[in-house]
Structures are given as structure tokens and as C-alpha cells.
Amino acid sequence: MNQHVMLNRRAFVIGTAAAGAGLALGFNLPFGGAVARAADGSPEVNAWVVIRPDDTVVIRIARSEMGQGSLTGLAQLVAEELECDWSKVTTEYPTPGQSAARGRPWGDFSTGGSRGIRGSQDYVRKGGATARLMLIQAAANEWKVPASECSAASSVITHLPTGRTTTYGKVAEAAAKLSPPTDVKLKASKDWKIAGKSLKRLDTADKTTGAMMYGIDFKLPGMLNAAIKDCPVFGGKLKSFDEAKIASMKGVKKVVRVGDSAVAVVADTWWHAKTALDALPVEWDEGPNAKTSSETISKWLAEGLEPSQAAFVGNQNGNAMAEIARAAKVVEAVYNYPYQNQATMEPMNATALHTGDKLDVWCGTQNGEAAFATAVQASGLPPDKCDVHKLLLGGGFGRRGQSDYVRQAVLIAKEMQGTPIKLLWSREEDMQHGFYHPVTQCRMVGAFDADNNLTALRMRISGQSILARLRPEAMINGMDPATFQGLAPSGEAAIGYSIPNLLIEHSMRNPHVPPGFWRGVNINPNTIYLESFMDELAHAVGQDPLAFRRKLMAGHPKHFAVLNAVAERIGWDKPAPQGVYRGLAQVMGYGSYVAGAAEISVTDGSKIKVHRIVAATDPGHVVNPAQVERQVAGSFVYGLSALFYGGCTVKDGRIEQTNFDTYNSMRISEMPKVETVLMPSGGFWGGVGEPTIGVAAPAVLNAYFAATGKRIRSVPLRQQNISFA
Amino acid sequence: MELDQKGTAMANLTINGKKIQVDVEPDTPLLWAIRENIGLTGTKYGCGIAQCGACTVHVDGVAMRSCGVLVSEADGKEITTIEGLAAGGKLHKVQQAWIEHDVPQCGYCQTGMIMAVAALLKDNPKPTDEDIDGAITNICRCGTFAQAREAIHAAANA
To answer: Nearest CA to CA, how far is A548 from chain B (Å)?
Structure first.
């Protein structure tokens, strides 16, 4: 990939004056004939599109690339409407500081919740279409012909009556001076030529040679390196440290108190900084949480399963309690889901240079604007003296939506003004200072009438809320709606079953361990709970798990369609190969409908071989099928790693797992064959990075029951001595 | 390697065919000497305890996790990093296969995996799936394994 060019701040200031906040994204009126320019002087046709004289098309991407491929997908959407030559497309990130100065022409930078494509497809396509119309108009003006007589394809504009042609590079300068058209018509997806195709990613080559620059690789002249230790108990404080003990160690430059809970050693190299930090005597005030453990948390959460405990209602119809009380048959089970660390391959890091009157930060972040706000706040400088320069992320999975590491880097740099500081966390720091997938337990109760019809379902979740800690402004009267992902009555994460009497509640209990967004977030536990229990209910009345579900799905045709697709593809109605057993699961999350079917074999009741997965996805639209397939297959690696190997436990107030030896991850030998069925039905835009992870664990757990007759209701499997074969 | 009075020594490393004297303590992990003292950052830090494989390099032609190799142990040996895998301006066949199969997602672990695969193919030019399962033990959190396996077979047949 071409390095993301730093944009020219001065050029943007010109654009800013005319950019009314809240206008259509990306369409600044030119100001006094001045044209906004990229750093190399090339004209900006609009905020999304810069065209160089050699016809290179630079497409601006506001969302972050962390492996999910949306950098390429978003470029495809812009290029589709722009009608440019795909072979001449390159990309660059605008900076959050520039965006703030220009009235947010690029909209939201945040890259989470599987929103990269679906959250920006409309305005980036308009960005491409608007630029195309301006380029055509510029050519028409030059030729003194009506624009309606001209058309564009592959970066060439043709005057149809005469056959005369010019290129985007030749007219970009003139186009950039035109007023943008206000009503542009977007293509129907059936007419796509660039979008909707499995084009190769734009950022692959440098990832194979070592040339790709991640945050950890960033360097500046005179840069020093920092290693950090935060209080191992969340909520604890740094009491004291004895820097004299390490002052003479090789390379050490300074020991810095960072906020009220962390200490950093700054040295010439990171290895020197880390070695000295490990030798630094530190005293902690571990605070009120120093005795908390997984056991105490589990006990507290278990109390929340009792009907007498207060709870928020996320979905209800009929009267589940009354129906359960008079049922012919009642089935009940309790499940639980642990803390999980995102464990991005690249540990947290950021480089900051604070000169006293200016701050620049370079880092990987899923949320450039939040990183910018954090950097501004920590720097003590006004926003127009700060900026954040995004670099490629070595994994995100929700972790890099938080800016704690940015704040730390800025605070250290502020103590060493004029010296660039690269802060890098050790893997151990990364494992023990995450924002963890929240912990929950769940009591499931199902009721049948005398004819074995499911008449009621009650689901009581007890446990942690992410939003209460990270986004309290998104709470609704104290309730965290995200807790009900995959279980909601309607919307982008709606339940796929109609049950005459239904009650789904959340008793909120927030332990001191920081919760965070973790690929798929609450559809991980919720789909295990619901889809495992649907299997339990089916078996309780001697029905086939697929047939049992189908009876409840008539009012949910899209959920039904993906489930049927995996059942058909895996051959549900035919016997599995000898010794192989099958399980199913479905969920809606992030606006998409997904289902998974697993084929596994089990040796000695404890060694699982996952042979084959079939996964169906209806995300409405597919921008790059090959990348969607990778997101689906990757969801099984991440989801099954969490199921088999994951689980962060708490002892003495801190996370016990410190590295990949205690928090392992799947290897190639454990990877099943994943067959992906993409079935976009149009009419809506769903995400693809996360929904499939919901079905990964329950499909395998249901197959495990089919193989062994044993129901697993607790994650991870390693704690039950079950492993990959 | 010889120590001076401060416990430092000039290590004689041969990296990608070039002899380099590095002023670094002998107990420094090779990973950090490569990244910080020599300045080649394609070799990645992932765990520091030889679990994940992101830092894989070749030491005398053998794939090793450079976070677990001390500079003193690498002294005088031939070290190849990802930056030295291409020869004569031509990408290694594993790199080419990786590009053709669009393997990387975030890409962070991929240079280490490519180094592990290149070493595998040198010793075992036509590995079976079982051979791959046994030899390639790198962690990839994005989950590129299916494309990686395809690319390994493609490189073997190139």
C-alpha cells in the first residue's frame, strides 16, 4: 500500500472557511476560487477524491483498516460511482485534526460495530458520484458542450457526439473549482462493475515484505522508547517507586509517573526500558478491589439470576411467568460466559511528540476522533495545535476503540517536551490491562404445553454492562440495550423466533474489571445461551433441532433463510459421515442474518475435531465477496479460540492470564474447512466483521451434544479439560 | 563475543548477507537487536516468549523465534529476516503466493508466518496438510489459515 500521505494542513484551512458544519459530507464549496489540495499539490475534487495530473486517484478513507478489508471495500464504493480506473486507485487517511478543522467532512471515523461499510456506504458513494459529475462538467466546459453529451468510464471522459476524449487528471484542476451538484443518483447494485467484485486488497504487498508500517514500527529522529506498568489491580493506584535503583541501568533516561496509577521508564531502546522497568521497585495501593476473584464475581452474578432481583426488560410479550407456572413441562438451565481479551497481535502502542505548543500522535486506532479528543485533553493544548496520524492496526477487535494508550503516551511526552516518545506495552501489560468481553450468566427457562408446543421462554441475564462504563450516554433509563444483542424485539439485532410468551431481562452487575467491545460483543454469550437452549428444548420433547426451530421462525423469513441455507448445504436431512456429528445455530447481529452448521467428531469425550463449517450470511449487500468470506472464516478462528482456549480469570483483583501460554489461540492445524454461503437479499446494509462469530461456539457446542449427549453450558472448554483433537 | 567493561559487546551479526557489528548486551533477544539496533521492523514483537511466531527469522537456515534467541547465540551465524527473503529483486515464491491468494488480513503476524513457511518448503518442498499442521504453529488472530494453507500449496507447486 502507498503510505498514507500526511495532508497539507494549510490547504485544509482554506477549505474549512467554506465548509458549513452539517452540510452533506465531503462537499465543500470552493472558497474564493481556492482549491483544497493534497500535500503534493494535487487538487481535491471533493473531500473523498484527489486526482493527480498523472490520473492517479487518491481516495480518502476515514474508517480504520485493521485487517477487515474495509479500506479496499470503501475505495471500491467510491471508485464505482467515480467511474475511475481501478488500477490507478490509491488511498490515504485524513487526520482527525483536519476533520475537526474542516467541520467533519468525512463524518464518523469510528471503526467498530461492523459499521465500516454499512455506516458510510451512502455518503462515500455520493462522494464518488459527485466527483464524477464535476469532472464531466469540467470537460464539457472546456469543450463548450453540454455535460449531458458526455460520459465517463475508467477515468476517461468522452464527448459522445464527436468521440473526443480527455482524462480525469487533465480536468481535475478545473473540476475542483466547480460547485458540487446537490442531487446525485447512485447506481443500483446490479449495475456495479467494481463494487460487488472480489477485487484484491489494496494493502497486501507490503504486508508480505515487512515494509508495512504499523504503530509499533513508527520512528522519528531522536525518538526515545517507553515501557509502562499500570497498577495490576484495576482501580488501584501507584504509591511509590525507587528510581535510584535503575538510574544507572543501560539506556535509561527518565522514570515518569503516568496519571495516578502507572509508571513508565523511558530509555534509548524499548528493550532497555522494559528491562529497567522489570527491575524497578514499585509499590501499589491496590485499593478496594484487591480481594476480588472470579469466584466472588461469579457468586454476585448468580444472585442476579433470581427472579426477586431487579432487572431491565429487553424483550417481552405475553406473560412468560404465568405460562411457566402452569406449564405441562418446564426445562431450565444456567449458562455462563467469561471475560475475554482481544489479544491483538500488535500490543498497544502510540508515539507522541509534545513540543510545548504542539502535539502530534502516531498510532493505530479504531476511533481516530476519540484518540484525538483524548490526546487534546491530555496535552493541555488547544485542538488546533494537536493532531493524530493513523497508522495501520495490527488487529483491533474492539480493543483499539479505547484510547487509554494514547493518553499514556501523551502524558509521558508532555514530561519530555521536544523528544518523540514511543510507548509500547509488553504482551503482559496488554493481557492484564484490557477492556474485556464482559462476564455474564444466564438462566434459561422454557415451558411446553401438553402437546409439546413451546409456550413460554424466559431468559434472565445477569452481569456486566459495557455501556455503563464506556458510553453511559447511550444507556436508556439505566438500561444497556447492547446487553440484548441478538435478542431484541426488532432492529439490527433482533431475535429470530416468535414465542407466545417471552421475557428477556438483564440484572446488571458491574464488577471492577473494565468491560469493552470484543468482536461480536454480546452476541457471543447471547447466541450460546439461546441457541444451545433451543437445542435443549428440542431434545426435551424429542424433536429435531432444525424442525423445532423452523416452527418458531415463520415470522422471521430472513433468519429462516440463512438457517435453511446452512442446513441444506451441510446435508442436515442426510446422515453425517460415520463418527461425525452436527450442530446448528443462527443469529441476527449488526444488521445481518447469519447461521452456522458444524460437523465435528469427538474422541474420548474430550478431544474435538472440527471437520467442517458451513456459514451463511445475508448482509443485504456485499461489496467484496472474497473479503466477506475472510471475515466469516476469521470469525470461526476468533470465536472458537475463545470457546476452547479463552477465558480471563480474576484473582486478587487482577487478571491471571499474562501471555499466549495462558491465553492461547487457534493454530492452522485446528482450523476447520469453512464453506461460506453469501446470500445478500438487498434492501438493507448489514455488517460482516462480527455477526458470524455469534454462531461459531453454539454450532460446535450443539454438535458436541449430538456426539456425546453431554450439554456444555460454560466457556472456555479448557476449564472442563476439553480440547482440540 | 567479547564483553567490554560495561558488559556490552560488539556482536558480529550477519543479517541478510551483510556483516553488521552491533553494540548491544549479549543477553538482548535477537528480536530487539534486529528491530531497534539494526532497524529492520518487518520482524514483529507479539509475545516475547516464543509462543506466537510473529518474530520468526532464519538462523543458519532454520526458522527460529527471534524473541527466544539471544544475540550471543546468534553471533557469527547467518540470519535472514523478512526483508532479506526476496533475492535479486524478486520476491520469494512464498511471498508471491501470499500476494496471489490475498492471504493477509491485518498482516501483523504474516511476516513471521511467511518466514516459517519458507523454511518449511526448503526442507520439505511438497508438504502435505499434515506436514503443514505440524510445522506451522504461528498464531493469527484474524484467522487467515485457510488462505495461508492454499498459498503454501501454491508456493510448493510454483
So the answer is: 33
**Identical fold at A215-287+348-424 and A294-340+436-724?**
yes
Q: Cβ distance B91 to B147 under 8 Å? A: no
Nearest to residue A448, comparing CAs of A296, A350, A552? A552
Q: If you classify domain A294-340+436-724 with CATH, what class do you get?
A: alpha beta
- End-to-end, the C-alpha distance of chain B in Å comes to 41
Residues of chain B in contact with residue A666, where contact means CB-CB under 8 angstroms, are: 139, 143, 145
Residues 6 or more apart whose Cβ sits within 8 Å of residue A155: A55, A57, A83, A84, A85, A88, A167, A168, A169
For the packed helices A693-708 and A523-540, what is the interaxial angle rounded to 10 degrees? Answer: 30
- Could you report the per-residue pLDDT of B2-58, keeping only the tens digit for each? 556 555 668 899 999 999 999 999 999 999 999 999 999 999 999 999 999 999 999
pLDDT at A561 over 70: yes
> Which amino acid is residue A225, in one-letter code?
N
For chain B, which domains are there? Answer: 9-83 (3.10.20.30), 93-156 (1.10.150.120)
Residue A22's pLDDT band (boundaries 50, 70, 90)? very low
CATH class of A9-208: alpha beta
Q: How do the domains of chain A map onto residue ranges?
A: 9-208, 215-287+348-424, 294-340+436-724
For residue A257, what are the CA distances in angstroms to A229, A265, A411, A549, A552?
10, 9, 9, 57, 58
Query: Out of A207, A427, A673, whose CB is closest to B107?
Result: A207
Contact criterion met (CB < 8 Å) for B82 and A210: yes
